[in-house]
Design brief:
single chain; alpha/beta; TIM Barrel; 8-stranded parallel β-barrel; two-stranded antiparallel sheet; globular
């Protein structure tokens, strides 16, 4: 059985950085019409420079060839949708043995310290980590203070740092979280968390310049890369956007050069 190092390393290049494309939103959010043809997006973004994909069971099963050998990180959480009542917590709906049967390289599970449902969600995360350890399967913990509930002080740099350190202490192999807003505070986070940290893109659509700048800052501060989706697959040219992002992550390209490449006329 492959060990965790063997499974994780192919998703991080020699520069120890990774570009994870998040395509798992359809598990509970409306992804239409932008992701009407997910296989096409996956294939094009894989060729454009993504190293791995966050995926649902449906994507991993039905579009296996579209990933072109790139990593597949399977979402374990579910049971809630954006049209639901919002009065129930996320549950683990996919087991580790199910994930292995699909042939994925890693899994991802939520951690929401401080949320209304923190006891159940953190218990699920802990159980998933222990199950992954049994099978040597890497786990990405998505650590978000108070989860989707938010709150005025929920996403302070201090709370984000605490949540990420908690995920590492629970045994996660990689942490996915929100950018803290400044290189200084994100450097402190990365110094305080002893596993690789990748930043998410969030639900809000932001300008190309802002997104690329945040990625550049996070990498310079010690971040291991990104796990982003909506701003990329919702873009008019997902593959070109992905190519620009890959150049920043793996070629240390400037934001200005990446923007020129993205907006170049053919």
């Amino acid at each position: 059985m492959p060990n965790k190092t063997h499974r994780i390393n192919p998703r991080f290049r020699e520069d120890k950085k990774t570009f994870i494309m998040a395509m798992d939103h359809g598990n509970g959010f409306n992804v239409l019409p932008a992701m009407k043809y997910p296989g096409k997006i996956i294939s094009e973004v894989a060729r454009a420079g993504a190293d791995a994909f966050l995926a649902t069971v449906g994507l991993a099963d039905k579009f296996a060839d579209s990933f072109h050998g790139k990593g597949i990180i399977l979402r374990l959480d579910g049971s809630c949708s954006f049209i639901g009542s919002k009065d129930k917590p996320l549950q683990t709906v996919v087991g580790i043995e199910d994930a292995l049967r699909l042939g994925v390289d890693a899994v991802i599970s939520m951690g929401f310290p401080g949320s209304k449902w923190e006891d159940q969600i953190l218990e699920n995360l802990s159980r998933n980590i222990m199950d992954c350890n049994e099978w040597n399967l890497p786990l990405v913990a998505e650590m978000l203070p108070r989860g989707f509930e938010g709150g005025e002080d929920s996403r302070t740099p201090e709370n984000i740092t605490f949540a990420c350190r908690m995920g590492a202490e629970m045994g996660a192999d990689i942490i996915k979280t929100e950018y803290t807003g400044s290189p200084e505070s994100f450097h402190e986070l990365c110094e305080s968390v002893y596993v690789p940290v990748v930043i998410l893109g969030g639900s809000k659509k932001v300008s190309e310049e802002k997104l690329l700048t945040e990625i550049k800052e996070a990498l310079a501060a010690g971040g291991a890369g990104i796990a982003m989706g909506r701003n990329i697959w919702g873009h008019a040219e997902p593959a070109r956007y992905a190519s620009a992002i890959a150049k920043i992550i793996h070629e240390d390209c400037s934001v200005e050069s990446a923007l020129k490449e993205l907006n170049k006329k053919f």
